[in-house]
Design brief:
Layout lengths: L4 H10 L1 H21 L4 E9 L7 H8 L3 H7 L8 H9 L2 H11 L1 H4 L5 H10 L1 E6 L4 E8 L2 H59 L4 H33 L4 H21 L17 H37 L5 E5 L12 H36 L1
Antiparallel strand pairs: 1-3, 1-4, 2-3
Length: about 375
């Protein structure tokens, strides 16, 4: 059996008392229930992490030295997530929740026997919004009493600040101890290598081998040149005055002296002369390799100390510095007007749904009666 729109209108006219009754019942019951619901108030605060709230000292120094790529590859000095996520994790942590529950007696407020259920309800009443673009965090809290919502949010911020600073101080203390031990270790190593270089220099009479060997080569070249000139002069005198002439004997003695000097520079080893300006060429490979290793080790330690010392001093200062973990952009406030429940929406929605229900009820009843009547006639 089919119904058209006119049939439905006729049915509604006949059953209008039922329709009005159901609708009024929905209106009255939803009004009573909505006004029995407690008022819920909402307050919030906007905070921005401080520059040094979550960033490790290694990050800033590596970045300043242009070594941020090394930092990313080694995961040095980073939390692996932003400060906003870091703050959100701490706010929702059990340690902060337990302190709030005990201080505000929230188990009685929420009528919960167990801590874990109270923590769950507290987290449901806490809102956290991250704005990564502006790098701000919006923390809000719902409560039946506006003053308590205000006090709880203030306590949230105080506990968050304390927890962040405690974690930061603990990390800085560990970093400081590590850097201090490394700084002292490299300083001792540097002193040891410097002492070894000093002993090496005293033993071989070496100050700077490369420059000294360059000077030695220049000296030998000059001596060779002088010897060659004297040998030419000797040949000339031998031809003019004979080999037994006094001039010839004098030149031979000078040439012999130059030969001995050149020979001593290239082959002789004189360890008694501790500070010879020109070192022996016999020991050149050993001297150059040893000096190069010692000098390289000294330079490496100096670079390490140059890198570590600023970190060491910065951490020493940070351990005594007191600073807030974040900047409060919007302070918590006592809410003046309720946020929930939305009574008008509840009443209108419930009344409309009850009207639809009553309409469907009337239609189904009429449909049932018509079918029943039709089946009776056919039988």
């Amino acid at each position: 059996m089919k119904y058209n729109i006119f049939d439905l209108i006729e049915v509604i006219k006949l059953k209008k008392k039922i329709l009005i009754s159901f609708t009024l019942f929905g209106l009255i019951s939803s009004s009573v229930i909505s006004f029995l619901l407690p008022n819920i108030y909402y307050t919030y605060s906007v905070i921005k992490p401080s520059e040094d709230s979550g960033v490790n000292i290694f990050s800033s120094v590596l970045g300043a030295k242009g070594l941020s790529g090394i930092q990313r590859n080694l995961n040095i000095g980073s939390l692996q997530y932003s400060d906003l996520d870091y703050f959100k994790t701490l706010i929702l942590s059990r340690s902060i929740a337990i302190k709030l529950i005990d201080e505000f007696d929230l188990r009685n407020v929420y009528k919960q026997k167990y801590y874990f259920k109270t923590i769950k309800e507290l987290q449901e009443n806490t809102t956290i919004q991250l704005d990564n673009k502006s790098n701000v965090l919006i923390i809000g809290i719902y409560d039946k009493k506006p003053e308590r919502a205000y006090l709880m949010l203030n306590r949230y911020l105080a506990l968050l600040d304390s927890l962040v600073n405690n974690i930061k101080k603990e990390n800085h203390t560990k970093d400081y101890e590590i850097l201090k031990s490394r700084y002292l270790f490299y300083t001792q190593e540097l002193q040891s290598f410097e002492d070894s270089l000093k002993q090496f220099q005293q033993k071989y009479g070496i100050i700077i081998p490369t420059e000294q060997y360059t000077a030695a080569i220049n000296t030998i070249s000059e001596l060779e040149l002088q010897k060659t000139i004297m040998e030419l002069e000797l040949d000339k005198i031998n031809k003019l005055k004979g080999i037994n002439s006094p001039e010839s004997q004098s030149l031979r003695e000078q040439i012999k002296f130059l030969k001995d000097k050149i020979n001593s520079l290239t082959t002789n080893i004189d360890t008694k002369d501790r500070f010879k300006f020109i070192p022996s060429f016999n020991l050149a490979p050993e001297i150059l390799i040893t000096y190069s290793r010692l000098f390289q080790n000294i330079q490496i330690r100096q670079k390490l100390i140059e890198f570590i010392y600023p970190l060491y001093e910065q951490l020493k200062m940070d351990l005594t510095k007191e600073s807030s973990a974040f900047i409060v952009i919007d302070k918590p406030f006592i809410p003046e007007y309720k946020t929930k429940p939305k009574r008008a929406i509840i009443i209108l929605t419930s009344t409309f749904l009850m009207f639809i229900f009553s309409f469907m009820y009337i239609y189904l009843i009429e449909f049932w009666n018509k079918n029943k009547y039709k089946n009776g006639i056919e039988s």
